[in-house]
Amino acid sequence: MRVSAQTKAATRDRILQAARQLLAEKGYEAMTTRGIADAAAIANGTLFNYFATKEAIIACLASEAIAESMKKADANDRIGESLEEDLFAVIALGLRNLKPLRKHMPVLLETCLSPLAVSVSDESTSLRVNQLEAVESLARKHGFGPLSATALQLYWTLYIGLLMFWASDKSPKQEDTLALMDDSLNMFVGWLRTEMPDDPTAIKPKGVSPWPPSQTS
C-alpha cells in the first residue's frame, strides 16, 4: 500500500514529538532510536526511513527551531539602523527557540555540524541554509551586494563558534554569549564593509546610511 504524503508528514511529526519528550525525560545518551520508535508507535525500521541517526533527529529539531525564528523575523518588516543590529536580533531569536535543545547542542556540533563530518544530513544542511539565507537577505536590505562564498563561510564559522560557546555558557542569562555575539558581528560586518560592494538595489533604512561610519566618543 502506498503511503500518502499526509501520512508521511504525520509519522515524521510523531517521531519528532517523541524525540522531544525523550530528550526532556531521559537526555541524549539514554535516548535510543528504538525508544523513539516505540514512543512514536512505529517500527524501528520505519524510523530509519525518515532519519538515519538520532543525531539527525536532533539536527531536525534544531533546524525547525531556527526556521521558526526566521519566519518571525521575516514577518517583521522593520529594518534596523545597522546590519549588526538586525543580525543580533535574528540570532538572539534563534537561540531563544533553541533553548530546549541547549544542553544537547554539543552532540550536534560534534556530529552533523562538525566540519569533520563524513556526511552531511539533510537536516544539518537545512539548518545551515536557513541561517545563510537570512544573512544574505539582511545584508541586501542594508546595502551590501551579494555575499561571496568567503563571506558566508566566515559568518557560518562565527555562528558555529557562538553556538558552541552558548551551549556551555554559565553566565547569568548567558550575558557572556551576548557579549561575544556583539563582538563577532561587529567584526563580521566590519570585514564586509571593506570587502563587499554597495548594492544600489538594496532596501535602505530611512534616514540611515547603509554603511554608517564607526564613531566612538
* Sequence stretches where pLDDT stays below 50 over 5 or more residues: 202-217
Radius of gyration: 19 Å
Strand content: under 5%
Number of strands: 0
Shape: globular
Helix/sheet category: mainly alpha
Order of helices and strands: HHHHHHHHH
Report the average pLDDT across residues. Answer: 83
Can you walk through the features of this model?
The chain is an all-alpha fold and about 220 residues long. About 65% of the residues lie in helices and about 0% in strands. It is built from 9 helices and no strands. It has helices at about 5-25, 35-40, 45, 55-75, 85-100, 105-110, 120-140, 150-165, 175-195. Helix 4 (about 55-75) crosses helix 5 (about 85-100). It is globular and about 55 Å long.
Note the topology.
Blueprint: H1 5-26, H2 33-39, H3 44-47, H4 54-75, H5 83-98, H6 105-110, H7 122-141, H8 149-167, H9 175-195
Helix pairs in contact: 1-2, 1-4, 4-5, 4-7, 5-7, 5-9, 8-9
